[in-house]
Design brief:
By secondary structure, the protein is of the alpha/beta class. The longest helix is centred in the last third of the chain and has 18 residues. The protein is globular and about 45 Å long. The two termini are about 15 Å apart. Bound molecules: phosphoenolpyruvate. Phosphoenolpyruvate (PEP) binds next to strand 8.
Length: about 250
């Protein structure tokens, strides 16, 4: 069956010393607990090498926050999937709403990023989610369906099995306005249904679908208790070791 995952997306936060202390504290606290989930840390790219030392100890897996849609060449400022793979980085976030909004990343580019990662034996954590206005106009299922199919449904069945999906309603990200457990379950079950329709029930049942958006130490257990919520992608609360470990143990 599918695995549960809790992933901490640090975004563009922490200086190097703070990042080292935070990952060391998380690894240390987790060491003493029995884990029911895979724990992934997504630090800024500059800290991936340092973080990958903790990946070696198999308490934590490491994800990049971004990857180039190109293989290699004259693309100033970019980092390729093969470079990440050479550093033994296992996962990479793709399609985060901040990349879509601030960096204009469209579905086609995101699909290419997914391909680059899979070509290089890495696993995409693919984010989808509606804006508040989409939900107010009851258009949220359509938006999520579009993002899922345009970003991922060109993959064959075997390829798709390497993808983690993260449902992140944009109105919940960093706002304190968390989705209700019912809203999360409803959308996760809808997403799983779309995967079953496109591939098959087994593939759908094996796909990890994370919830993201103002998930914290207080609300994690009620969100994760839903049968189609397989853990979380955590932003703000992943910057505090105690809070993050509480979220991990809620899974
Ligand atoms: C995110 O950015 O992926 C996220 C879920 O952020 P937050 O937990 O801060 O809402």
């Amino acid at each position: 069956m599918r695995k549960n995952i809790v992933a901490g997306n640090w975004k563009m936060n922490q200086n190097f010393a703070e990042a080292e202390d935070l990952i060391a504290e998380i690894a240390d606290k987790l060491d003493k607990k029995k884990l029911n989930c895979e724990v992934i840390i997504c630090p800024p790219s500059l800290y991936l090498e340092m973080a990958s030392d903790y990946g070696d100890e198999s308490i934590l897996s490491i994800a990049a926050q971004n990857v180039s849609s190109f293989n290699n060449g004259a693309y100033t400022g970019e980092i390729s999937a093969s470079m990440l793979n050479a550093m033994e980085i296992e996962y990479c976030i793709v399609g985060h709403s901040e990349r879509r909004k601030y960096f204009g990343e469209k579905d086609e580019i995101l699909a290419e990023k997914v391909d680059r990662l899979l070509d290089n034996n890495m696993k995409p954590i693919f984010c989808i989610g509606e804006q508040l206005t989409d939900r107010e106009n009851t258009n949220h299922f359509e938006v999520v369906k579009n993002q899922l199919s345009k970003g991922l449904f060109h993959l064959n069945n075997n390829e798709f099995l390497n993808v983690v999906v993260a449902y992140e309603p944009v109105w919940a990200i960093g706002t304190g306005m968390v989705a209700t457990p019912q809203q999360a379950q409803e959308m996760h079950s809808f997403i799983r249904g779309l995967i079953a329709e496109k591939y098959d029930t087994q593939t759908a049942n094996e796909t990890t679908i994370l919830y993201g958006g103002s998930c914290n130490a207080k609300n994690a257990s009620i969100l994760f208790a839903n049968k189609d919520v397989d853990g979380g992608l955590i932003g703000g609360a992943s910057l505090n070791a105690d809070d993050f470990v509480k979220i991990v143990t809620a899974s």
